[in-house]
Amino acid sequence: MRSRRIVGGLIALITSLGLVAVSTAPAQAESRQRTGYTQVVVAPAVYDLVAGAGITPKAVGGAKAFAYKGTLAARFPITGISLRKLKIRHTGGISLEAGSAKITLRKLTIDLRRLKVTGKVKGSIGNVGRVNLFTIRRSDRPGLGLVQLRLTATAAGALNSTFGVEAFSAGDTFGYATPRPFGRF
Question: Which domain holds residue 152?
Answer without folding.
Answer: 2-21+29-180
